[in-house]
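Hi R.,

Here's the input for the adenosine monophosphate complex you asked about:
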Amino acid sequence: MKKTAAIIFVLSLYIFASCGCTSVSHKYDKRLMTTLYDYFDTVITIEAMGVSTDVFDEACDEAEAAFKRYHMLFDIYNEYEDINNIATVNRLAGETVTVDPEIINLIELGKYAHELTDGAVNIAMGAVLRIWRDCRIFAQSYPEKAMLPDEGLLLAAAEHCDIENIYVDKRNNTVALKDCDMSLDVGAVGKGYALRKVAEITSKYAGSFMINCGGTVWVKEAKPNGESWVAGITDPLNAEGEFAALVPMTGGALATSGAYIRSFEVNGKEYGHIIDPDTLYPAEGMVSVSVMCNDPAVADILSTACYVFSIEKGESIAEKFEDAGIMWITSDGKTIFSNRFYHI
Ligand code: AMP
Ligand code: MG
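And here is the predicted structure with adenosine monophosphate in place:
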């Protein structure tokens, strides 16, 4: 959890002087903040200005209830009483499972992500991702015995990653994995989906909010005095912990994918948690990719995809969205910004 919290620290920068905004004193100009530790295997912070403590508490309760619900629905490892979640769908691969409509929507988002990214983001890749995850967990417990997955196992698992084998019946709210050996991993899209929904909930409250769900950030609007919220993007290659960029935000989302967060080492080489479906190995070339755009779900998809892609390919996909900007930190230490990535 600590590691994830390190991805993005949210700072308050007083930039009204440079942007020409006037500072107005506001009834609720105290900065309120709450932190959640129990969802999506990460740290979630909710900050607000321009709201009373009572309203903030109510908004946080509602946001937390939503995060909890999505966490349980999208969990791929644990099942919960009275819920058919993604773990249930995986366990019952081959059978038709009745699910909450939100799971249907998430799977449709996953199918959209697959199409948008030419298959680079594939929620049907659970069989391959599980092998890498097992190696990573083993390496964490026994670093001296860390090893790479067996090539044959990876190739066999890759035979069971066809997204076309996810059958969704929207009318009856059912999902069926037609391949008994396939499984879903929604790690690349679940947080973005949840944050998109929590953003909708929070938007109905007056005041300015900033929510950071493990590196995927959403801002409702500027602070009451016109200042921007500012997200700092950590430079994983900087030993002093300096930020690679500061991003002023007055609305919209910023998602960061960084394999350094969940990686393991074999023979002195780091292996990350974002897998290139073409090679079945961790994508190489980037240490961190951040994408800003209005919709947290799209930002989440694009940051994972651009981690897998070359800079040129990532840029060409992001160009389909007129509000999307990308920041790459490459393994050889270069920080590169696309035209629409606004930063300090
Ligand atoms: P993110 O942090 O949004 O970039 O998502 C990374 C997570 O998505 C990983 O921890 C895996 O659970 C999953 N994942 C890794 N590689 C892929 C991929 N190529 N397609 C879909 N999901 C992936
Ligand atoms: Mg993602």
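One thing worth noting: Residues 1-24 have pLDDT under 50 and may be disordered.

Cheers,
M.
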